[in-house]
Amino acid sequence: MAAPKEKTLQNLSGKWVMNKTLSDDTDRILQMQGVGWFLRRAIALSTITLTVTEYTKDDLTHIDISQVASPGGITSTENRVLDWVYRDHSDRVFGDVKGKSRWVKLSDIDDDDFLKKGWDDMDGEHVQGYVESKGGGWTADQVWGFEIIDGKRYYVRHVVVRKGDDWKLARLVYDFQK
Questions:
Q1: Of 113, 94, 102, which Cα lies nearest the Cα of 158?
Q2: Quick one: CA torsion of 139, 34, 118, 67, rounded to 10 degrees?
Q3: How far apart are CA 60 and CA 165, in angstroms?
Q4: Pick from 175, 155, 159: which is nearest to 167 by CA?
Q5: Hey, which of 74-83, 103-112, 165-174 has the most confident mean pLDDT?
Q6: Measuring CA to CA, which residue among 127, 76, 71 is closest to residue 103?
């Protein structure tokens, strides 16, 4: 289901399911991030559900996400504080990483047009997340927002993963569940 109007980046709480028809294939990105073939296949065949809880604490936006791939029960968490401070995280899928997140205007994103284009709100603030693998040699930069696709509004993430001189792009599209 498309995102209702009341769902914004300031009110993202709820359940979101990856729309694999509208999303780009993630296999090449996951491979670059060191995810093994068996786990990549399991993810490809699974329904990915995000349970998002967004709140403000000490004047900072927090976005806590529980991600489940079903069937299979592959889980991971993303607990983001939008203050652009690195935090360490150990992830079942991606291993040991450090990441930071923030509110950002598209004009303040450095070098990647893919991260900046296609949004339904080109002037407002978006969420940017940046992650560095501690042992895998890759980085992931992503921007979150909403896009109009085939006349419907969706929650979307633009993702750029880099490893050495190689890079991969993906647009991840999510349906709102409740």
A1: 113
A2: -100
A3: 35
A4: 159
A5: 165-174
A6: 127
Side chain identity, residue 176:
F
For residues 106 and 90, give the distance between their C-alpha atoms in angstroms, rounded to a whole number. Answer: 29
- What distance in Å separates the CA atoms of residue 69 and residue 86, rounded to the nearest whole number? 26
Q: State the DSSP code for 110.
A: -
Average pLDDT over every residue of 133-153: 96
pLDDT, tens only, 58-98: 999 999 999 998 987 778 888 999 999 999 999 888 889 99
Q: What is the DSSP string of 134-176?
A: SSS-EEEEEEEEEEEETTEEEEEEEEEEEETTEEEEEEEEEEE
Q: Which residue carries 């603030």 as its tokens? A: 125
Percent above pLDDT 70 for the chain: 100
pTM, two decimals, is: 0.94
Region at 58 (left for phi over 0; alpha for psi -120 to 50; beta for the rest): left
